[in-house]
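worker-3 :: picked 3-dehydroquinate dehydratase
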Amino acid sequence: MDLSFDSFVLTASTADLDDEPAARAHADALEFRMDLATDPLDALDAYDGALPILATNRAEWEGGESTESERDRLDALVSAAEHDAVAAVDIELATLRTDLGGEIAERARAAGAVVVASVHDFERTPARSELVTLLRKVAHHGDVGKLAVTAHTKRDALKLLEVTERATAWGDRVATIAMGESGRHTRAVAPVYGSKIGYAPVHSADATAPGQYDLETLRSLVSGLSSKPDV
Ligand SMILES: O=C1C[C@@](O)(C(=O)O)C[C@@H](O)[C@@H]1O
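worker-3 :: tokens ->
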């Protein structure tokens, strides 16, 4: 299965691939949080859903729950990429800058997966110049560059939207999210400025990050904002 991220992709973010039938009505793909799942590779072997998968195996040091060694965590991601249904993998920018990370990205691409290079800031929204630099770096290392920050004010959210528009205008393929209450609306609005990936749990109780809308709500908000007005 393929994911090009040329246009916006709404992922149902989940630790349970059995969510697929419920996600299908609203999502373009699943984000499979391997680090939150029990036996993720067995779950992938058994997967027969219709939605393509973006596989994430997030390390503890980047806000995830994987406590495996880096080698084991990343080998599992490559094993995931070898499944036909896995169209993309998420690899942290800090990982991609290591020799091991470079090797893993190469193996994942050889297995047919697109690489989403990611950076997360669970504390704050950096200054605009830093956001621009980070977006450049993730877009350079990945086929899509993802930046998730934490907004405390509307100005934080605005900064993120502004740099999303700029990066998209100069031709980078990026995905941006402002986590937290102040940034919540960016999940619906950032796609208008070019952001290519959205994340939402099928049920809000299963949120994988602060400020997420449930899947049906985010789909309806994004669709409402992207549809042409009746004239
Ligand atoms: O990086 C992201 C974005 C995210 O943190 C969010 O804020 O929706 C959710 C994560 O599951 C995903 O890997």
